[in-house]
Prior knowledge:
By secondary structure, this protein is an alpha/beta fold. The chain is 28% helix and 24% strand. A hairpin with a 5-residue loop joins strand 8 (121-125) and strand 9 (131-136).
Amino acid sequence: MALSVGTAAPDFTLLDTTKTPVTLSSFKGQTVILAFFPAAFTGVCKAEMCSFQSAIQRLNSAKAAVLGVSADIPFSNAAFAEANGLTFPLLSDFNLDTIRAYDVLFENFAGIQGLTRSSRATFVIDAEGIIRHVHVTENPGVEPNYDEIYAAAEALS
């Protein structure tokens, strides 16, 4: 069961697409949309990350930062970001530590025995680091409810 609303968001440091460490606590003072996605270069993940990119001006106006997190390595995330024009950080959790900390492991992804990735999960974290909205899809092939996510972020601005 994913972390719940009202819980302090676990801090983490993950590598971005340039292998630069990014720490959640460095975003203190602003809203963060933390979007876990199962795998770069899959159709629904592309649609999800591109949806966040399409709303980036709206989210920036709400002083909300988007961070995408997957188990992919930085090089895959870099190619995925470039191919899709993504301007927000994609972070690599290749050892699954952050995915475990947020309790969003998805085992046997795509029916492949032993392949563990993240669920499709989104956490809206307030300026003080408290989780204010959680959305985890039961099926990773289903996109999240963007209107709910954006409304939760805008309510914190």
